Amino acid sequence: MAEPVSAQDRLDKIVVLIAANMVAEVCSVYVLRVDGTLELYATEGLNRTAVHLTVMRIDEGLVGTVAREAEPISLSNAQAHPAFSYRPETGEEIYHSFLGVPILRAGNTLGVLVVQNRAHRSYTEEEIEALQTTAMVLAEIIASGELTAMALPGAEPAARRPLHLSGLALSEGIGLGHVVLHEPRIEVTKVIADDLPAELARLDHAVDTLRASIDIMLEDEGVARVGEHRDILETYRMFAHDRGWIGRMREAVLTGLTAEGAVERVQSDTRARMLRMTDPYLRERMHDLDDLANRLLRQLTGRAGGPDTLRLPENAIIVARNMSPAALLDYDRTRIRGLVLEEGAATSHLTIVARALGIAAVGHVENIVGLVDSGDAIIVDGVSGEVQVRPPADVETAYVEKVRFRAKRLEQYAALRDLPTRTRDGVEIELHLNAGLLVDLPHIDETGATGIGLFRTELQFMIASAFPRTNEQLKLYRSVLDAAGDRPVVFRTLDIGGDKVLPYMRAIEEENPALGWRAIRLGLDRPGLLRSQIRALLKAAAGRELRLIFPMVSAVEEFDRARHIVERELTHLRRHGHALPERALIGVMLEVPALLFQLDQLFERIDFASVGSNDLVQFLYAADRGNPRVADRFDPLGPASLRALKLIADKAMAHGKPVTLCGELASKPLEALALVAIGYRKLSLSPASYGPVKAMLLELDLGALAAAITPLLESGTELSTLRPQLKAFAEMAGLPL
Ligand code: PEP
Ligand code: MG
Fold first, then answer.
1. Can you tell me the distance from the alpha carbon of 493 to that of 395, in angstroms, rounded to the nearest whole number?
2. Which residue of 501, 549, 589 sits with most ligand 1 atoms within 8 Å of its CB, as the best mutation to test the pocket?
3. What is the C-alpha to C-alpha distance for residues 642 and 721, in angstroms, rounded to an integer?
4. Which of the residues 227, 275, 314, 530 has the least number of beta carbons within 10 Å of its own beta carbon?
5. Strand ranges inside 37-150, DSSP E
6. Which residues contact 345 (CB under 8 A, 6 or more apart)?
7. What is the DSSP string of 268-305?
8. Percent of the chain, pLDDT > 90?
9. 159 vs 711, more confident
């Protein structure tokens, strides 16, 4: 029986073989280590004693340059090169020519493969290609983790090193588990070709099939809707016909690779270039090219790709460049513990769905798809935005402790469930929930919320692949009312446009979409859509109470027109003998500053109001809520916004009309403190914030708070924010924040 061969033995044999094949006197493998240095792991030709002793920094020598630049270097007189660094222990001074290629995997450098010759000679293009091919095989050995055993303690190869990455916290929670790649890397098992003409034919056939499939998609009206999707397909078509790209893959086959080996080689080079690119547009195009290469690989290897969405491992952490909310909903959500994305945004639909499902999520994690393998251990911290890949035992223990602590806190919140939300000085505060999907509904019972203060109806539209029919809408609204029982639910009519784009609706280019044709403006101009939604809502609420609000109202007259549509629908249903809601209460979202100067007229007409502070604050300060450069520039706890919010609360009180605040402000304990200080008694918040805000309110002496804060607002204050004063109050009063 054959002796088991150690990784070191294999590597030693490989360097001898490469040296012989390349007719080189030297062949060496350098592996990138956890500490960012390059270690000589095997050599034929240099002093063997230097193996595992020669270590160089990545900014040092020719080998360092190859690793850093992720590009081959070929020199006939290496010692004359400014980057040449002499290592006496290796005995390399007698070798003049040098060819080094990066060992790349998924665009990441894992090491460097070098051949050297005594004579001054120029390596041919074919030789460079051939060495790159061999480097691909080495990449798999390094990534497999087999070399770890031969590393000195604390100096494992970088390919398997623990990584601590930072991104943007999207959805609260901490998830520990194992990587499930949303679009897994396609494993190429056969790299070296037996029959070159046959491999060329396979590649050509795969490219033809790819082109044909793109053409079919472009012709399919249903798929290639106008707008962004079509643009992507057009770009794909352009790349699929790109002679440079196809030429590079054919050349790679001619160096001895299989068709899939060639696609992967060129893909790896593209990724390495992509990682060095700073221009976001070009990076995006590279991603498109990467996606096309994956399609070719899937075809050539006969793998359908995509994980089995139903049979996930326990504790799955989904890792993706980006994905649609519908794709996330396709997974067995009882097994998903986290989500890590290269893209993603705080207000994106996917984020909203992840939050609703209680899945910890972090976005903006650069190249995460390239850095992990399926099954890798991974931790997602959706509170701090940190991601730990292959965490060391001590880090994992710390997180297990964190999870335990969070669970305990959640238990404490759960214990408050049946207590009325009443401040220490006896003021009742109503806490409602923000919702928008079926998956939100169990939170009503879990939290013991007073009701649903904002049901964002557009979410159903945003996650669907086509306009939901009136019947589908009706079904959802009925389920919401059933789940709420006798607790009130405020449905908001469609708030689409702006950043809320429906993939199947014709996209309209607007210079300032947030200020554009959106929400009620669109509803009034295209009343068919609004009418059918209102009809579905009225039918769903038959025999019960319906509460309805219109988003982005800017003028009293818009409210009048919208209410008129409701009245007409009521008349229509009555005439056709349909059961009607017991009563319909109609209100507005206060989120456009112009309404601040029409409050008296407005409150005379409406039954209730809901303040959308996300939009109101962005419009007050003219600072885009979705633009990280300006979103946090002005503090919503500044006197300008607090005075505006207080004006609304005062007017509502004077008119005897209920007002709720349903923007994100209500979901943060310190901000919620400010809101109750200026007179708000009804807040609508995200389910995860319910416990923390309630716990804070239960400890609050509202009289003392108002006495401390109101004078600051009334006295023409110079302060740019009241945050420090609110914090000081909370600390002094021992409020849990
Ligand atoms: C708001 O603007 O505060 C709001 C609740 O609406 P949305 O976040 O859906 O725009
Ligand atoms: Mg809004």
1. 46
2. 589
3. 9
4. 314
5. 37-44, 55-57, 73-75, 97-105, 108-117
6. 168, 170, 351, 363, 626
7. HHHHHHHHH---HHHHHHHHHHHHHHHHHHHHHHT---
8. 59
9. 711
Assigned token pair, 10: 């294999």
- Report the nearest-CA residue for atom 1 of ligand 1: 612
**Residue among 677, 722, 729 at smallest CA distance from 703:** 677
Q: What is the mean pLDDT of residues 571-586?
A: 97
Q: Which residues are CB-neighbours of 146 under 8 A, at least 6 positions away?
A: 7
When pLDDT is cut at 50, 70 and 90, the band that residue 94 belongs to is confident
Which residues form the catalytic set?
Answer: 349, 662
Residue type at position 447:
T
Instruction: Give the pLDDT mean for 551-576.
Output: 97
Q: Whose CA is nearest to atom 9 of ligand 1?
A: 456
Q: Per residue in 17-56, is it b (16+ CB within 10 Å) or e — as a string?
A: ebbeebebbbbbbbbbbbeebbbbbbbbbbbeebbbebbb
Amino acid residing at 302: G
What local confidence, expressed as pLDDT, does residue 292 receive? 87
Of the listed ligands, the closest to the CA of 610 is: 1
Tokens of 348: 């994106």
Are 621 and 631 in contact by the 8 Å Cβ rule? The answer is no
Tally Cβ neighbours within 10 Å of residue 411: 10
Please tell me the distance from the alpha carbon of residue 379 to that of residue 398, in angstroms, as a whole number: 11
End-to-end C-alpha distance for the chain, whole angstroms = 67
Q: What is the enclosing helix (H) or strand (E) of 389?
A: strand 386-389
Band the pLDDT of 226: cuts 50, 70, 90: very low
- In 3D space, the residue among 130, 124, 102, 104 whose CA is nearest the CA of residue 256 turns out to be 130
Between 550 and 505, residue with greater pLDDT: 550
At residue 309 the predicted structure's pLDDT band, cuts being 50, 70 and 90, is low
Cβ contacts of 398 within 8 Å, gap of 6 or more: none
* Count of positions (residues) in the chain: 737
Cβ of 615 below 6 Å from ligand 1: yes
Instruction: State how far the Cα of 514 lies from the Cα of 32, in Å rounded to an integer.
Output: 47
Please say whether the beta carbons of 314 and 335 come within 8 A: yes
> What is the whole-number distance in angstroms between the Cα of residue 551 and the centre of ligand 2?
7
CA distance 634 to 623: 8
Gap between the Cα atoms of 400 and 215, Å rounded: 50
For residue 192, give the DSSP letter.
Answer: B
Question: Cα of 673 to ligand 1 centre, how many Å?
Answer: 20
State the pLDDT confidence band at 1, using cuts at 50, 70 and 90.
very low
**Residue among 496, 499, 591 whose CB has most ligand 1 atoms within 8 A, to mutate:** 591
Return the pLDDT at 43: 95
Q: Let me know if 728 is exposed, middle or buried by CB neighbors in 10 A (0-12, 13-18, 19+).
A: exposed
Quick check: helix, strand or coil at residue 526? coil
Residue type, 730: A
Ligand 2 midpoint to CA 481 (Å): 22
What does the mean pLDDT of the chain come to? 89
Count Cα neighbours of 463 within 13 Å in the Cβ-side half-sphere: 23
In angstroms, rounded to a whole number, what is the distance separating the alpha carbons of residues 511 and 320?
Answer: 30
* Ligand 2 centroid from CA 616, angstroms: 8
Does residue 662 line the site of ligand 1, with CB under 6 A?
yes
Residue ranges near ligand 2 (ion) with Cβ within 5 Å: 591, 612, 615
Q: Judge whether 424 and 701 are in contact, CB under 8 Å.
A: yes
CA distance 207 to 145: 34
